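Please, does this match?
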Amino acid sequence: MRIVILGCGRVGARLASVLDTEGHKVAVIDENRLAFQHLEEKFKGSMVIGHGLDDQAIKETELDKADAFVAVTDSDNVNLMTVQLAKEKFGINRSIARVYDPKRAAAFKEIGITAVCPTIMMTDMLKETLFPKPTGKKK
């Protein structure tokens, strides 16, 4: 699969490295050249310096041929806008935005944008750790 990832922080770099190891063709875009240091040394994908989905980044990552797009920058706005562009302009239905704000994540899910919200996920995990569900097994 061809996958383009916008944002090469800890999450973007980890995802890119894992997918690359699994044999996918991965391209990572970040506006900060130093961000690519987060990638594993054996990363074979492409690294593109760019801001969002500018024309040069689109060309270098071959976004028009991508099967999936993931936006994990530190900006909800950038993530949501670029996922919307990837879906509408390039027809990449498998597009995901990381969104920190739970209200925005819910609103964008309603209009068909897949938004993963670490705030919600972490809250749920902490709650489940505090109050584990009974397993139903009797001793």
Observations:
- The chain has one domain: 2-130.
- The chain has a mean pLDDT of 93.
- The helical segments are 10-21, 55-61, 76-90, 102-110, 118-130.
- The CA atoms of residues 102 and 121 lie 10 Å apart.
